[in-house]
Amino acid sequence: MALRLRTEMPELKGITEWVNGEAAKEDFKDKPVLVHFWSISCGMCKESLPDINKMRLEYPQLQFVGIHMPRSEKDTDVDAVKEAIVKYELKHPQGIDNQHNVVDAFENEYVPAFYLFDKNGVLRHRSAGEKALSMLKKPLERVMGELE
What we know:
The protein has 4 helices and 6 strands, in the order ββαβαβαββα. By secondary structure, it is an alpha/beta fold. The protein has a single domain (31-145), classed as Glutaredoxin, CATH 3.40.30.10. It holds the Pfam family AhpC-TSA.
């Protein structure tokens, strides 16, 4: 069961290693945040990464945090994850969560998965799987509209 809507954003604690800077819940005061879970062994995840980069340019006020969620022992290779981060030009903070501490805090089971929090740190949307990004569009526009 994934994190329930209207729940406060969990802490981002217990990360194995951060790439592109650390992220903490306190950093996002009064800012909307998109937390996306992905894995190097997930083909759908790799397909969605360029779209996330486009979104980062399209919504400069939106904060992004990637959480790499290993799905097998092979996925825990930190160097391989770092290579993927460079290859896919992920410039926002990336947490490598080899112990599933953040994964468990979010009660997340899937990759790719997206959790959208509003400027008050409240979960407004979550989606996972193949259509996850397309399902994110309207809630994202709503949350971003609340900043105006």
